[in-house]
Design goal:
Radius of gyration: 22 Å
CATH class of the largest domain: Alpha Beta
CATH superfamily of the largest domain: HupH hydrogenase expression protein, C-terminal domain
Strand content: 15-25%
Largest sheet: 10 strands, antiparallel
Number of domains: 2
Order of helices and strands: HEHEEEEHHEHEEEEH
CATH architecture of the largest domain: 2-Layer Sandwich
Structural class: alpha+beta
Strand order of the largest sheet: 1-5-4-3-2-7-8-9-10-6
CATH topology of the largest domain: Ribosomal Protein S8, Chain: A, domain 1
């Protein structure tokens, strides 16, 4: 989570009165977020709260965005949808066709509506020259697609076929990428290392790569799951978001009371 202190608002360039009004509006917003996260039923992936940006005074938005910060997960869906986790677990910023909103949800519904649906049926009659391991990998992924539950979100580690440690030829890699195709979901996760997760065109099959800070690949695999579990939030993390929200509220209210905001 982003550090919680009044310094987070230092780079928001507002006059004194507007800053004070923005702080009060942000308190009201975060109280709704805290209450929703505290009392929400997370047994289903229902969106519990949606707040369009148009409900805020435009002069207050920079302050609101600085307050909620940015989390580790970002995603794009095609050219029209962008998603960003905030520093408050369970609170997402969603931009769809240029229109922004906040959502409280374990996994944004836009991700689930754009999952690939094609079954993998590898054609093994004509194998190009130089392709050796790819055929067996496609067979394994096809079998996993049939046996794994791809209709339910899971927090368990997914079925994984690691390719970074397999003796793949360049032709193998190209053959795999062509056979699996590309989906519309592209996810990046920041942290001690950075992860890049892409949907393939095949249902439930994702390319998951992890890079160190120097850009060197540490891990490269195909995983079979409805959605990789590191993308969404668990019920426990949603409750933790309520606690973090309360901490931010305390900082805000103290700064308002002291006259700092």
């Amino acid at each position: 989570m982003a550090q919680i202190s009044s310094s987070r608002w230092a780079n928001v360039n507002l006059d004194r009165q507007t800053e004070h009004e923005a702080a009060i509006a942000t308190v009201k917003f975060l109280e709704k977020v805290r209450d929703t996260l505290s009392e929400g039923d997370f047994s289903t992936n229902k969106t519990l709260l949606t707040i369009p940006f148009r409900e805020f005074d435009p002069k207050h938005l920079d302050f609101v965005l600085a307050t909620v910060g940015s989390g580790e997960v970002r995603a794009t869906i095609g050219q029209s949808i962008r998603l960003e986790e905030t520093a408050i677990e369970g609170l997402w910023r969603v931009q769809e066709n240029g229109v922004d909103r906040f959502e409280i949800v374990t996994v944004p519904s836009d991700l689930l509506r754009n999952l690939s649906t094609t079954p993998l049926e590898p054609q093994l009659t004509e194998i190009p020259q130089g392709v050796f391991a790819a055929s067996a990998i496609l067979q394994e992924l096809s079998q996993a697609q049939r046996t794994e539950n791809l209709e339910k979100l899971s927090v368990e580690p997914p079925y994984t076929v690691e390719i970074s440690r397999q003796p793949l030829s360049p032709e193998d890699g190209s053959f795999l990428e062509t056979a699996l195709g590309k989906g519309v979901i592209d996810i990046s996760i920041s942290g001690f290392a950075s992860a890049h997760i892409q949907s393939t065109a095949m249902k439930g099959i994702w390319r998951n790569r992890i890079f160190n800070n120097a850009g060197k690949a540490l891990f490269d695999a195909y995983v079979v799951t409805m959605l990789p579990p590191e993308v969404g939030e668990s019920a426990e993390e949603m409750k933790l978001g309520a606690q973090h929200c309360e901490e931010i509220l305390q900082w805000l209210k103290e700064d308002i009371q002291s006259g700092s905001l």
